[in-house]
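Q: Could you fold this chain for me?
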Amino acid sequence: MKRKTVLIFITFLFTLALSACGSSGGGGGVPATQPTNLDPSFGANGKVVTEFFSGYDAYAYAMAIQSDDKIVVVGGADNGTDYNFALARYNVNGTLDTSFNTTDLCAIGVPCSGQVVTDFNGGRDVAHAVAIINGGPNNGKIVAAGIAHSGTDNDFALARYNSDGNLDTSFGVGGKVTTPFFNGQGGWISAIALLANGQIVVAGGAYNGTNIDFALARYNEDGSLDASFNNLDPFCSPGFICNGKQRTDFSSNNDYAQAVVIQTDGKIVVSGYTFNATDSDFAMTRYNANGSLDTSFGSAGTGKVTTPFYSGRYDSAYAMTLQTDGKIVVAGYANNGTRKNFALARYNTDGTLDTSFNTQPFCAIGGTCSGQVITDFNGAGSLAYAMTLQTDGKIIAAGAAYGEGGDFDFALARYNTDGSLDTDFGSNGTGMANTNFGSPNDEAYAVALQSDGKIVVAGFSNNGTNYTFALARYLP
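A: Sure. Below is the predicted structure, expressed as structure tokens.
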């Protein structure tokens, strides 16, 4: 169900931790088959699929829209031996942009204009985040981030590309950077954000030898670690200073950072989920610009916030966005004991739940959960992995929902600013849309808006033989 887990988090501890989240069950709800707002001018009736190496899997996990509305999608592609960073760039109509990578080959004799693959160390490498630089000397360059296997463990990995798809050799070593977190342990990047000065902030997880912590790093424009970031906290291991890196433990159990945003004041907000003795909760931290925890955020001066949805159940956050008023919206899923559903929470600038966001009770009989929203797609389970904001403040969440055949479809929901579903979206006044690619399994992991307000969603689809990049575009 979570190929992201299989590819990105390679340690058995992480796999076991995720398996504790449970599985989705059946029940009644919104009809599984719904007409959608698909844009027929994009690809084939609103949908695009892209294979990398013929007959081998490729998974898309992140997306960014260029200023010219071209679409950059990143993930991992299996070449028959291992996985590499995989990028594809699409024109506005959904066709591959043949000006992106005119020289590289996906495999011997196979031209791959419009696609790029990048190997780090001959091991398993997967991109899970992407950002496009806007302004400055590196304007238009693309930064992809994720995980690379060093031969002994997993490291933070970044690659920067020129606008033509070639690696930018002024970044790191030959366009690539790898960063170990704890000596001889493992780490991975799940999210990326760019500072106005060109620096790069990434967030993910790192195994400290006992459990997994939130992990951050800040890089200078040339790919070197920024030594001014967290330069007072030697933490990685005895005698090992980690300038440029930061980690946060919530409960001495596993903690996974999945999203990062930068506030206008330079403070860094990271969200994800944390496991405790009985279940998992949404988790969020805020850091000052120097990398220290912001003690004005969260409870008791800790800089941390945890939010349960259903008591004793597993809740996980994967996406986050900042509103123009500074409020923070986080999305993921919550398990109600029967199935997982889209789950959103909105927070005030101090980390408290915003009680003006959903004033309806939902958590349990008699339970009021202002500040939180649950959305049941079809009575069989759904998970939100991505989120964005429209210019009018409406919230779009994307992910996967079980469809008619018991397999996942792309799932999209749009919310008004008060947390209610937007009845102008989807069909039958539901505010929701399911999209099936005609395959056994379709899951969306990224969502972004083009300049005309059209909604692009990216993830992966199974063609019956292997997984491919998959995109869908919706009318606003």
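A (continued): The first strand starts at residue 47 and ends at 50.
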